[in-house]
What we know:
Blueprint: H1 5-12, H2 16-23, H3 31-44, H4 50-57, E1 62-67, H5 73-88, E2 92-97, H6 102-114, E3 119-122, H7 129-137, E4 142-145, E5 156-159, H8 161-172, E6 179-183, H9 189-204, E7 214-216, H10 221-232, E8 240-243, H11 246-258, E9 268-273, H12 277-280, E10 286-289, H13 292-307, E11 316-319, E12 322-324
Parallel strand pairs: 1-2, 1-3, 3-4, 4-5, 5-11, 6-7, 6-8, 8-9, 9-10
Antiparallel strand pairs: 10-12
Helix pairs in contact: 1-2, 1-3, 5-13, 8-9, 10-11
Amino acid sequence: MNVTIYDVAREANVSMATVSRVVNGNPNVKPATRKKVHDAIERLGYRPNAVARGLASKKTTTVGVIIPDISSIFFAELARGIEDIATMYNYNIILSNSDQNKDKELHLINAMLGKQVDGLIFMGGNITEDHIREFKTSSVPIALAATVDETKETPSVNINYEEAAYDATKLLLENNQNLAFVSGPEDTIINTEKLNGYKRAMEEQGKDSPEQWIVTGDYSYDSGLEALDQILEMEEQPTAIFVSSDEMALGVIHGAQDRGIRVPEDLEVFGFDNTRLATMVRPTLSTVVQPMYDIGAVAMRLLTKFMNKEEVEEPNVILPHRIIERNSTQQK
């Protein structure tokens, strides 16, 4: 049977109120009494009931985190940033995988709120009116990580995706006239911003109709392989490919190598994210550095401010990005 606070009180020969004060760190307990209670807890193997404590304090010290794909290195690094800051502020994490499915996302939001979490961090592909409606009616604060709400009504942490894609495209155009772009899913705001950055840089170089060079993937390795197949069917072959995720870029590189195409001598490849994959592939991958760990950490810190009713100067945080050139592109 579960050991209860009553069992601890009886074992230590103190009141249940005293046990509660010891468990909750109340300083108004004599050291000798505190030791008696801790000794009783250790002998009985008592574990405080977080739900019961939450009902009493109206706080459960838990934060719900909804993530599209827990197996993704990108989201794993974000989650690590969230976890480290949560631990620093004495919060526990409940992590759920949504598969970037809208119905599942909405279900998980309600399920998390039903578990009486103190706050929620949401990561997803596309924020719809249904999402915003759930966020607005939430009884606890919600923050977005690497996820854009066009209304800017939900606190969030991101980079400037359009500017990052613009910078990468502009760099590649210094050595290449024919530059293809492997885009992510068409229905996401972040992908649209990356695509706009690519188009803006192309148009500045007099490329009026870049659509012929755009291929759509789903951020996975396999879709990178498939994207390269489509690109190689083009009448005019590109000399460089800008890929909107590192994982897809690996698919492009390996697909090229399988066909005897040398990277970067015959084809330059540029990624986006700077996950650990970028240094695991050969040649190592030039990429946009998106600070995934920092995005997660800042999102969690932002959420703690809202949960603790601290002052928040800017609820929509934009972190800096940078470009790192490795061996998959020609060194300038």
